[in-house]
Amino acid sequence: MAAAGRPFDASETSTRIIRSVRNRLIPLLFLLYLIAFLDRTNISFAALTMNPDLALMSAQFGLLTGIFFWGYCLFEIPSNLVLHKIGARTWIARILVSWGIVAVLTGFVRNASHLYAARFLLGVAEAGYYPGILLYLTYWFRRREQAQMIALFMTAIPVSNIIGAPVSGLILDHVRWLAVASWRWLLILEGLPAIIGGVLAYFLLPNCPGEAKFLSIQEKAWIAAALDQEKSEEKLGNELSALGALAHRRVWHLAFISFTYQMGGYAINFWMPQAVKSLSTLYSNTVVGVLVMIPYLAGLVVMILVSRRSDRRMERRYHAAIPVIVGGTALILLGVTNSPMLSMALWTLAGMGYLGFQGPFWSLPSGFLSGTAAASGIALITSIGSLGGFVGPSLVGAAASRSGGIYRGFAIAGVSFFVSAIFVFMLPKKEKESAHQASVG
User: Fold this and answer.
1) CA–CA distance, 318 with 301 (Å, rounded to integer)
2) Which CATH number belongs to the domain containing residue 374 in this structure?
3) Number of independent structural domains in the chain
4) 366 lies in which domain range?
């Protein structure tokens, strides 16, 4: 294509522009999601001292972690449609500031009822952020780049634990300022960055390529032409309306996969610190934080490698299913050993499987959805999936008070991973990707 000035070499141009967009957007999106996931899951570390303080039983804690997802689910679709209508910059900034305020106020709860209400409101405040970012990435990248970009953005999940786990452990062991319990300071201190992040998003995040000051006119034109060409080749996505996407069979198929996957994933996120703590009475909260970091560090590496290979081969089914099979096997086997070393090895495999799934799976919706259909369809998938975030941790909490204990709950979470893999294999083997065979350097 020719742009104002001189003609572009297609391969060099695509590589350079994609790299430029990636380097400007992904670090900021990564940082914002790191903050989001930290606020969503730091309750798992707070529980090490919060549960005794508030006299919370295991079943209550399981419900507490899951109630976040009811608020999240109810407002997911409308939030994503608003983002698509008014632009990512303003709406994402609003989401961050509102959930930051709720996260900080959670540190001031006085009893379990207050905590339930705070967690529900946190879900309401954060609703739409994750599917909004997935939608936002489709404004900038073609399908052939999306698994890698999604994975780079979602590396915030393991990194939030790699950083947050040891920091949370240190806060619990050492921060008791003004005679206030350390778990309260944990929630307050880790909630403040979201408010700062909202301000950064408002000033630094362009709504679309046309508003990006770091792109030249030629580069903006290239992105628009590349995305338009791709959309014209995905007729099904263009034919669907927002309501049509909500009734689309493939959307509900992906939503069920997300539901069963999130059952296992959030069981890992919310219960791993307590499970690791139970391995030895000698483990301080700081040691637990360091140990919990290990599975996420391994998962980070796997997440990037699997997503890069998925994009290179333009294959999603096996790249999504195999990791959760590995993770499910590890979760089931946790109940057959009392060895701290072997348990940590299994937790590491579970973390690798949990995170390896993400990039390939979340690149699937854009294969048949675009525009408002993508906004509503992706939001529905994440909404239904988020209910798995309620069911999984709640089942583990309920199981913890019965015969077989917490590991019976982890086995159920492992089975949910296997179910997710089965339904991934039931997806079509090939999608209409004739224009996507070339790989980007």
Assistant:
1) 18
2) 1.20.1250.20
3) 1
4) 20-428
